[in-house]
């Protein structure tokens, strides 16, 4: 009985030591896995945004007049600006779908952490490497913004910018990592000669909705 009891104690000690070692390894691995996963998520997000936007604009060439209607007075003054909400919504959906499709086609990804890195900079990159598979969930958001800026005497530059965001929730082993990739593109711009009427200094694209 004493021998069996001692054997059980030894087994429990070994199991306890193994669990403690695994918990220590997990704690040591966490900053490396999180850092590498964040970098990979941002890289994938930025690449998907650029590829998606390039694909959409390869088929659709937009000018300022395609997204904004300008009304002039008899003397040539600009009296109103109206965003083409239907056109912008179509563009929003096209870009969102293109970026999402690019993300869906991306091959499975993983990160590798060498055990030497856990011992400090002197051993970084050395020794056996642990591969951690990355599973991710992504959402895509496309927004537009409008900016008025001085372009010289009695001239105002009106610029419309499209901003695309990809949010990643990355599941790496037992870690959950959130990343955000953002890219902005100059969609269209024009120079308005004369004063800018108050009725379009609050030019707002928020009514065109969101793509998620």
Structure description:
With 212 residues, the protein is α+β, with helices and mostly antiparallel strands. The protein has one domain (23-206). The chain has helices at residues 2-59, 64-67, 85-105, and strands spanning 68-72, 78-83, 109-114, 129-150, 155-172, 175-193. The strands form two sheets. A four-stranded antiparallel beta sheet has the order 3-4-5-6. The protein has a two-stranded antiparallel sheet with strand order 1-2. Strand 5 (155-172) and strand 6 (175-193) form a beta hairpin. The radius of gyration is 27 Å and the shape is rod-shaped.
Taking the alpha carbons of the first and last residues, their distance comes to 65 Å
Strand content: 35-45%
**Overall average residue pLDDT:** 76
| Low-confidence blocks of residues | 207-212
Proportion in helices: 25-40%
Number of structural domains: 1
From N to C, what is the helix and strand string?
A: HHEEHEEEE
What is the helix tally?
3
The largest β sheet comes out as: 4 strands, antiparallel
Question: What spatial form do the alpha-carbon principal axes imply?
Answer: rod-shaped
Number of strands: 6
Radius of gyration, taken over Cα atoms and rounded to an integer in Å = 27 Å
Strand order of the largest sheet: 3-4-5-6
Please specify the SSE layout and strand pairing.
Layout: H1 2-59, H2 64-67, E1 68-72, E2 78-83, H3 85-105, E3 109-114, E4 129-150, E5 155-172, E6 175-193
Antiparallel strand pairs: 1-2, 3-4, 4-5, 5-6
């Amino acid at each position: 009985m004493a021998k069996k009891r001692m054997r059980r104690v030894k087994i429990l000690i070994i199991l306890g030591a193994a669990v403690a070692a695994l918990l220590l390894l997990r704690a040591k691995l966490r900053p490396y896995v999180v850092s590498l996963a964040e970098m990979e998520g941002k890289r994938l997000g930025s690449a998907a945004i650029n590829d998606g936007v390039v694909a959409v604009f390869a088929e659709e060439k937009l000018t300022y007049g395609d997204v904004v209607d300008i009304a002039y007075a008899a003397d040539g003054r600009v009296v109103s600006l109206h965003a083409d909400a239907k056109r912008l919504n179509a563009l929003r959906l096209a870009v969102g779908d293109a970026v999402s499709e690019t993300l869906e086609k991306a091959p499975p990804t993983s990160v590798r952490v060498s055990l030497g890195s856990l011992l400090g900079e002197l051993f970084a990159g050395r020794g056996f490497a642990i591969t951690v598979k990355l599973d991710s969930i992504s959402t895509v958001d496309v927004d537009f913004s409008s900016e008025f800026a001085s372009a010289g005497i009695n001239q105002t530059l009106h610029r419309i910018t499209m901003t695309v965001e990809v949010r990643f929730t990355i599941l790496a082993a037992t870690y959950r990592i959130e990343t955000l990739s953002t890219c902005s593109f100059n969609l269209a711009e024009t120079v308005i000669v004369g004063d800018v009427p108050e009725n379009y200094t609050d030019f707002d694209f928020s009514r065109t909705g969101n793509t998620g």
